[in-house]
């Protein structure tokens, strides 16, 4: 299968591309810069120059592929609404290009808060509408299941961890180095699900090959790790204390990530594992923290 991948040089994409190539697929990766293009080529994939704002490049990549994996996202948390609009436009372009073809459109999404204390499952649906998180892209794209597309939502855990991770947990470690404490918010009992990047890449491939149209796939290995435990592991690795930070002080202490670190985001992948035959085998989040990947 010829697969068009956005975000091919990113943290998750850099694991997905070799997974696809090893399985015999051909990969074309979207690249915005010379550095990104070089990274894609080093992995053995072809390059299509363009960006999320260049809708013509997205349409071209989708039109010439047997399937699309959309992993790129504008992580500008100073203008999260703008990032949502960009995402909505990108997904509209990709989905409309594939309309009537029966080809797969896999796209990155996140787990969401359904109700306090409730574990989200694949059957739960997130909010739609342009003002919803990520521009309501999940509801928009899944709606194309009735229009001749095979859309599959890839709901990634808040932390996709491993050596080289610079995402949410990497940001928390950076805050701890800067402030001298690895704090948690409130009593720290709210939870984040987690998955190792290699397990995530394997599941993305399985979803490309067999994910059902209109389905949500939970890229989750650990249902929920308490944020206090995460903070204490970061503190132990860095040799700094792990105090509680009052909720009203979270944004001042943590910056933009405080709003996410305060959320309770447990998620189950039981249905995903059963339907796609996926069993996570990678290290846990705490094992990766103990290995020192976030203290270098």
TrEMBL record:
Residues 3-214 form the NAD-dependent epimerase/dehydratase domain. It comes from the Bacteria. Coiled coil: none annotated. InterPro entries: Epimerase_deHydtase, NAD(P)-bd_dom_sf, NAD(P)-dependent_oxidoreduct. PANTHER family: NAD(P)-BINDING DOMAIN-CONTAINING PROTEIN-RELATED, PROTEIN YEEZ. This is Nucleoside-diphosphate-sugar epimerase. It comes from Microlunatus capsulatus.
